[in-house]
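Suppose you are handed only these lines of text.
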Amino acid sequence: MVLDKLGETLKATLEKIRNAVLVDDTLMNELTKDLQRVLLQSDVNVKLVFSLTNNIKEIIKKSDIPQGISKKEFLVKTVYDELVKFLGGEGSKININKKQFKIMLVGLFGNGKTTTAGKLAKFYTKRGLKVALVQTDTWRPAAFHQLETLGRQINVPVFGNPKLKDPIKIYESFEKELDKFDLIIIDTAGRDALSDELIDELNRINKRIKPDENLLVMSADIGQAAENQAKAFHEAVNVTGVIITKLEGTAKGGGALTACSVTKAPVKFIGVGEEIDDFEEFDPKRFVSKLLGFGDIEGLLEKVKEAVTEEEAKDMGKKFLKGDYNLIDLYEQMSAMRKMGPLTKIMEMIPGMGQMKIPKDVLQQQEVKIEKWKYIMDSCTKEELEDPEIISSERIERIARGSGVSQAEVREMLKQYKQSKKMVKMLKGQAGSSKKMQQMMRKLQAAGINQNI
Ligand code: GDP
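From them, the structure of the protein bound to guanosine-5'-diphosphate can be written out as follows.
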C-alpha cells in the first residue's frame, strides 16, 4: 500500500484511542505525540504538524459532541477530518468541461513525466474520452520512442517527430489531426533544474498551445521540498496542479503531499508504481480513509451523520411540551431516540416506559415490535395517524390485514401510544414551568450522552 509505514502507525494510533478508557489529558498528549512523530518522519513541515495537533486539541476541548456518538468516536472523527483538511479538503479534481481539452505536463528530468503522460492517457481513455499524446521533448532523443511504446500499449495515438528541434513546430505540424480528439496530453522536455532556458521554453509552448491544465510532475521522494518546487513552477510557468509520482517507494510522501496542498498548485493525481495502472486521482477523503483503514472510518462517518444533533433533541423536547401527541410523533420519537443508543436507555426516556422494569430479552422483543410498528403505521390512513382515537375494532381488523400482523399486535401498539400520551399530559401538567421541562430534557440528553462515554 502507498505510505505503508504512515498508514500502519496512524491505524495503531486510532486503535489506542479505541482501547482507551477515557478521553483525558493523558490520551490527548499521547495522541499528539504519536501524530507528531509519524508526520515528522514522513517529512511533513514542522509548523503544519503542530498546527494539526493543536487544532485537534482545540476541537476536542470546545466542541459539543453530537448525541449518539461517544467522545472516543468523536476524537477519531476529528483526527480524520483534520488529516483530510491537511491534504487539501475536498480536493481539486480536473474538470474536463469542453470538447478539446489540453493538459500539458512539465517537470524536471527523471520525475516520471513521460510515464505519467501514458498513465493519464489510459485514465481518461477508460472514462470514454478520445485521447491523443503529443511528445514535444526535443532534448531526449529516446523520449518519443518511450511515449510511442506506452501509446501502443494502451491504444492511444502518439504524435511527435524526433528530427524536429522546435517543440512548437512539432505541435503545429499535427494541429489539424489533433482536432478530432477530446483530450490532448502534451509531454514536454525536462532539465536538471528549473533554469531560465526551461522557463522560457515552457512559456513559449504555453502561449502557443494554451493548455487548460498545466501539471507539474514531481517525485514524492523530495518530501516537503515539493512546496518550493511547486511554487517556483507555478510562478514561472503558471502551473495549475501537481502530480506526485513514486509515492509507493518513499517514506517522505506525506511531506510532498501536504506541502503541495497548501500551494496554489494542488495535487491532482498520484503515481503509485511503475505500471500504467499504478495511478489514481487524488482525493484527500479517499486517501485518508485508506490510510486509516476504510472499514473503520466509513462506518464511523455514517454513524456521525445519523447522530442526533442538539437542535433535533430540542425539537423533540418541544413536541413533548406541546402535548398534541399522535402516532406519527410516537414513531418519530422512537426512531430518533434509537439513534441515541441501545433500547434500554431509550426506554428510560420514553414517557411511561421508564417506570417499567423491563428485562433484557423483553427489550429485544421490543426492538422487533418497533419494526412492526412501522408496517402497522404504513397501513393506517392519514386521519388515523393524526387522531388514533378513531381507530375502531373494524379499523384494527383492516390495519392488521394490511400490515400482515395480528390484531393483538395492533392493539398493543395503540395501548403503548395511549400510555405515552397519558405520560406526556402528566409531564406537561407537572413541568408547567418551562424550567422544569428544560431540566428534564437535560436529563434525557445526559442519559443519551453518558452511556456512550
Ligand atoms: P521523465 O524524465 O520525467 O519523463 O521520467 P520517466 O517517465 O522517464 O520516469 C523515470 C523513471 O521513473 C522510470 O523508470 C519510471 O518507470 C519511473 N516512474 C515513474 N512514475 C513512477 C511511479 O509512480 N512509481 C515508481 N516506482 N516509478 C515511477
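What can we learn from it? Strands lie at 101-106, 131-135, 158-159, 183-187, 213-219, 241-245, 267-271, 279-281. The chain has three domains: 4-86, 101-291, 297-446.
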